[in-house]
Amino acid sequence: MDGRKWAYEDFAVGDEIVFGPRKVTAEDMIDFASQFDPQPMHLDEEAGKASMLGGLSASGLFTASVFMRMMCDAYILDSTSQGSPGVDYVNFRKPVLAGDELTGKTIVLEKRVSKSKPGLGFVSVKHELANQRGEVVCEMANTGMFLMRDPVAA
Amino acid sequence: MDGRKWAYEDFAVGDEIVFGPRKVTAEDMIDFASQFDPQPMHLDEEAGKASMLGGLSASGLFTASVFMRMMCDAYILDSTSQGSPGVDYVNFRKPVLAGDELTGKTIVLEKRVSKSKPGLGFVSVKHELANQRGEVVCEMANTGMFLMRDPVAA
User: Fold this and answer.
1) Beta strands B120-130 and B101-113: pairing type?
2) Is there a domain that residue A130 lies in?
C-alpha cells in the first residue's frame, strides 16, 4: 500500500466530500455530443430552444462524465479505487446549459468489507451536482471498491 | 410531426431493437479516460493488468457513452426523442477491454402517455451490451420521453 490518501479505512459514514466549481462550455458540450450523443438539442442552440430542455443542453452522459472527472480530481485519483460494479440510479433533475458552473458533493452512506476478496471494501455513496444557482442538476448513487490500507486490522 | 420513424406509437412492449457491432480501440478508451476518468487502469495496460480488471479497461462512462452512440445510430436519431429524466440502474458485469467488439439490444418493458404534457409519452426500456464472446458487459434501464405522431388519437 502506497501513500494515497483515500483507502477504504478513510471513508466514514456521513462524510461529505465537496468538489468543483467547474464551468461547462458550449464547445465542450457540443464536442462530446458529436461523438457520443448527437441529438439535436445537444448540438444546436435553436434545436435546444425548440425542445423541452429550453436551450443547448448537455447530454446526460456529458454531465455524468464531467461529474466523474470532478470526483477524480477531488479524491478518486488520490485513492485506492478499484472501480465500481455499477450505478444504482442517475436522476437528471434540471438541464445543464452552456456556461453553467457546477459544484458537487459525495456523501458516504454505508461501507462494508468484502467477504470474498481480502483487502477490498465497498463504499456506498450518493453524489449531487448543482449549478451556480444552487439547483441540483444531477443525482447519482453507486458503490465504489477501495483497497484497504491495512487489511489485517480491518 | 415530421417523418421520423420512431414516435411514441412505434414502440411496443416486448420489442427488441438490436444494434452494433462496434469495435472499441485502446486509443479511444485512453482518449476518453484522459478527459473524464483518468484512473490508471483506464490509461495504461500495465496498470490495468495490476488491477482487478485484468488489462487496460474502459471507463464505465466510456462504455455507457459508446452504448449511447450505438443507440443513437440505431433508432434515437430517427425518433422523436426528448431525452430521459434519468437512468434506473447501470451494471458493469465484465470489463470492456481494448479491441472488444460490442453489440447491443434495447428491449421495451412498458409505455405510458404523459398526464401532464399532451403529446408526450414515456417508454421504459432495458438495454444490454455484449462482447464478441456473447458475454453481457453492461446492462442499463431507463425511461425515454418521445413525442407522439398523432396526439389526438392516443
Assistant:
1) antiparallel
2) yes
Assess if residue B154 is contained within a domain. no
Q: For the whole model, what pTM was predicted? A: 0.94
Going from the C-alpha of B24 to that of each of A84, B50, B69, B76, the distances in angstroms are 20, 21, 12, 21
Domain count, chain B: 1
For residue A154, being part of any structural domain is answered with no
Probe site for chain A from B90, B116, B126 (most A CB atoms < 10 A): B90
Domain that holds residue B39: 8-147
Q: From the list A72, A82, A89, which residue is nearest B88 (CB)?
A: A89
Q: Is A75 helix (H, G, I), strand (E, B) or coil?
A: coil
Identify the closest residue of chain A to B28 by CA–CA distance.
A35
Complex confidence, ipTM:
0.94
Confidence class for position B151, pLDDT limits 50, 70, 90? confident
Contacting A with CB below 8 Å, chain B residues are: 35-39, 41, 51-53, 59-61, 64-66, 68-69, 72, 76-77, 81-92, 145
A128-to-A136, B12, B17, B104 alpha-carbon distances in Å: 7, 34, 33, 30
Domain CATH number, residue B35: 3.10.129.10
- Contact assignment for A89 to B92 by CB distance below 8 Å: no
pLDDT in tens, A77-113: 999 999 999 999 999 999 999 999 999 999 999 999 9
Q: Chain A: give the shortest CA distance to residue B71, in Å.
A: 9
Residue B152 lies in a domain: no
